[in-house]
Design goal:
This is Peptidoglycan DD-metalloendopeptidase family protein. β1, α1 and β2 form a beta-alpha-beta unit. This protein has one domain: Glucose Permease (Domain IIA). By secondary structure, it is α+β, with helices and mostly antiparallel strands. The protein is globular, with a radius of gyration of 16 Å. It has three helices and twelve strands.
Length: 212
């Protein structure tokens, strides 16, 4: 379990943040309050608590931040799954493991407070990343701290604390950390898409959410 929510029993909304969503052309995505009103307005209209989606999605929402647009080859391919839910929602670990690293990535549009766990699956390392948490989620952590399935490791953070996004959890899996600590690209360029998708498997293979 990743959130205190049953994707088998409770309704949820799949959210589209690609260029095929006409709503995004009319929104000022640089205004986080406006962006948040849009996301949670969608959830309320659908009478659900959680919005979900985004793996391998070619998104336009990163154009709001220079953090993703520092070169001609902008990063717009999303490498994890996002869970849009109220700030303060507990985040649980779906696998046994240890704390690999953690950091407050405090750039506008970045992860904000981030935790990365290390797991062993069939004798091979697997890493899981939890981004856009509360700063309090980092308190008391240390590298090597053991965690077990369904342990609470943090909470979804509010903006601007969470990197200045509408409240959500970015959940991502990696088979190779490429030397990163407390951070890992959650978005890549089109030219790097195949490289990063080979390192970042679809988290839904673990979660099994219908429709993703």
């Amino acid at each position: 379990m990743l959130l205190p929510f049953s994707f088998q029993k409770e309704p949820y909304l799949i959210l589209d943040f690609s260029a095929t969503n006409p709503d995004l052309a009319t929104l000022d995505l640089t205004n986080t309050a406006t962006f948040t009103d849009y996301v949670f307005g969608k959830l309320r209209a659908a009478n659900v608590r959680v919005g979900v989606g985004g793996y391998n999605e070619h998104r336009v929402i990163y154009r709001r931040s220079e953090h993703f647009n520092t070169s001609e080859d902008s990063r717009e391919i999303h490498l994890g799954i996002d869970f849009w839910a109220e700030a303060g929602t507990p985040v649980l670990t779906p696998l046994d493991g240890i704390v690999h690293s953690f950091r407050d990535n405090a750039n506008f549009g970045d992860y904000g407070p981030t935790i990365i766990l290390e797991h062993t699956i069939d004798g091979q390392p697997l890493y899981s990343l939890y981004g856009h948490l509360t700063r309090a989620s980092l308190e008391g952590l240390y590298v090597g701290k053991e965690v077990q399935v369904d342990d609470k490791i943090g909470e979804i953070g509010p903006y601007p604390e969470n990197g200045d996004w509408p409240p959500h959890l970015h959940f991502q899996l990696m088979t190779d950390m490429l030397g990163y600590e407390g951070d890992f690209p959650g978005v890549c360029s089109i030219s790097d898409r195949d490289k990063f998708l080979s390192i970042c498997p679809n988290p839904n293979e673990l979660l099994g959410i219908a429709g993703l």
